[in-house]
């Protein structure tokens, strides 16, 4: 059995960043569901917007985005619509419009060759030992097994590592559904939609490279029905759809309190959405994936004892920030509070002509 210092499960933004930042003194293996390149295989469903906090992380890393991951157009405002009251506001936002799959592949391409990367693999089983973890995975139909001193779960909302470490932990989750359409709107736009009759979370739309993506986060058992219901409602507000060209869905976490942020234990660690590090108010997770990976890399590179308490301590400010997003989400998803804020027109930017 091959032995490693660190095994990383998942190479999304969190896992790929950690793999890139770990010391060359550590022997690292990374397992990922995505293929090494191309448009086939697993792809993360996502609206594909890079928030300012994520942009700041790239500044710290000294990295610039290649044009191959940038999508068109770049939009500087979000059209916020409360479908229950019909109130619409336009707020300034500094997101970068990206192609999410191209972005993920680019992040993987930055992983140094010293890291042993296995693409298009499926992690099957985890076993705790006296000196680390046995990890069993399937690659090209063949079952393989390795040993690692430290285990890192960077495997997203349905994290196998989180379930293994915290089998009784329950966190609020939604079914995220989005569809791609030919964009027939005269002016491309990005929107944030609220309707408590459909979901107590929120929905979104984004224009991207000639396509119009419409999606939302809905109750797990009624996702598609709620999605179709919202689609009918927003057509009354000049949203144009046509025939769906592609449909996507996935599970998305939505923390509701402090206990939902789980950092790991017993020489196993969680980063990104696997740790519950995702904004409850916007479902934005890339920035927290980058930040938590950077924090964990410092802990693992330093080594020593009590690594789990050190990592948990280092993420305190990040978790505190995410807790503030939980409170913000409660305000935004409370109809009378949302109506009060939007009717106040605070920070609203009036447009010269309506769409």
From TrEMBL:
Query: Which branch of life, at top level?
Result: Bacteria
Q: Which GO terms describe its molecular function?
A: FAD binding
InterPro entries membership? FAD-bd (IPR002938), FAD/NAD-bd_sf (IPR036188), Geranylgeranyl_reductase (IPR050407)
Ranges where the FAD-binding domain occurs: 4-166
Regarding protein family, the annotation reads: Belongs to the CbrA family.
Among NCBIfam families, the record links this protein to:
PRK11445.1 (NF008519)
Which protein, by its recorded name, is this?
Protein CbrA
Q: Which organism is it from?
A: Leminorella grimontii
């Amino acid at each position: 059995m091959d032995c490693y210092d660190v095994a990383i499960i998942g190479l999304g933004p969190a896992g790929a960043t950690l793999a890139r930042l770990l010391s060359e003194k550590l022997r690292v293996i990374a397992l990922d569901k995505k293929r090494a390149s191309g448009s086939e295989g697993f792809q993360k469903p996502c609206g594909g917007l890079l928030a300012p906090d994520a942009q700041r992380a790239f500044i710290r890393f000294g990295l610039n985005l290649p044009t191959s991951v940038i999508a068109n157009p770049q939009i500087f405002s979000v059209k916020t619509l409360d479908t229950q009251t019909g109130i619409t506001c336009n707020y300034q936002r500094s997101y970068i419009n990206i192609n999410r799959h191209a972005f993920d592949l680019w992040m993987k391409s930055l992983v140094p060759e010293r890291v042993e990367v296995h693409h298009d693999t499926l992690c099957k089983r985890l076993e705790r030992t006296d000196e680390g973890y046995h990890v069993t995975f399937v690659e090209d139909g063949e079952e393989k097994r390795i040993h690692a001193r430290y285990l890192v779960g960077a495997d997203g909302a349905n994290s196998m590592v989180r379930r293994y470490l915290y089998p009784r932990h329950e966190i609020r989750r939604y079914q995220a559904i989005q569809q791609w359409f030919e964009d027939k709107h005269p002016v491309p736009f990005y929107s944030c939609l609220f309707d408590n009759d459909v979901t107590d979370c929120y929905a979104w739309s984004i224009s991207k490279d000639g396509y119009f993506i419409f999606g939302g986060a809905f109750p797990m058992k009624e996702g598609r029905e709620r999605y179709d219901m919202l689609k009918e409602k927003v057509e009354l507000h000049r949203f144009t759809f046509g025939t769906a060209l592609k449909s996507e869905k996935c599970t998305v976490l939505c923390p509701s309190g402090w206990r939902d942020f789980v950092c790991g234990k017993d020489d196993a660690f969680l980063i990104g959405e696997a740790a519950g590090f995702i904004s409850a108010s916007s479902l934005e997770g890339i920035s927290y994936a980058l930040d938590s990976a950077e924090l964990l890399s410092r802990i693992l590179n330093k080594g020593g004892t009590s690594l789990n308490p050190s990592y948990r301590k280092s993420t305190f400010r990040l978790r505190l920030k995410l807790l503030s997003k939980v409170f913000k989400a409660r305000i935004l998803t409370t109809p009378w509070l949302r109506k009060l804020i939007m009717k106040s027109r605070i920070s609203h930017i009036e447009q010269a002509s309506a769409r």
